[in-house]
Amino acid sequence: MPIRLNLKHPVIRRQIAFMFLVFFVTLLALVSFARDAGSRFTIGRVKYGGGGDWYSDPSSLPNLLRFVRENTNIETAEREVNVGIMDEDFFAYPYLYMTGHGAIKLTDEEIRRLRSHLTHGGFLHADDNYGMDKYFRREIKRVFPDRELVEIPFSHGIYHCRFDFPNGLPKIHEHDGKPPQGFGIFYEGRLVVFYTYETDLGDGWEDPEVHGDPEEKRLAALKMGTNVIVWALTH
Hints:
There is one protein chain. This protein has 235 residues and is of the alpha/beta class. It folds into two domains: 1-39; 41-234, Domain of unknown function DUF4159 (Rossmann fold, 3-Layer(aba) Sandwich). The chain has seven helices and seven strands. It has helices spanning 10-39, 60-71, 108-118, 133-143, 201-205, 208-211, 215-234, and strands spanning 44-47, 81-84, 95-100, 123-128, 150-151, 181-187, 190-197. The protein has a seven-stranded mixed β-sheet. Strand 3, helix 3 and strand 4 (123-128) form a beta-alpha-beta unit. Helix 2 packs across helix 7.
């Protein structure tokens, strides 16, 4: 025999009202959580083919995001997102980061897609982790065949927007013993690619026990990384 509820009974009505209230509050909390999570800045670590280790320095970006969160007004996620250029959500990450030790090889479609991203508001920070230089220069020339990587002068705001680096990039690792250099590509007056060469900021962002870098070098790397993010988000 089926059980029939008396929906007019005050106790039943109170229970139904309470259930709706719990459902509504839970829904609001989920929406708020999703909105807050979506509003937190994160970095899109670019996955690429060719054999280079795009995934190198695994502790670097979480440490950088934490430093940015603690030293600016930017709310950051706990860690980066690994994203391929052909992924559906590629354009959801305006700040891209590329690193590695070896070869980089992009397909023609990836070249077109990356150029579209960078010319419509995106920003790419490429960090030479020793060994990627000739490959990155080759591939970025395919992305912007009509533009050159130019050295960024020490007076540029990227070296001064949050922390002051009057002499440009800090030297974190030895590599070939050359002075560090920051190169860039501008599109319609906006810096869309920033290439940090002979410095290895990513190694400086890693946990201290990974490379044994002195604390002052790690701090310099984190501060410079913060400058890059602040500049990209405000210009």
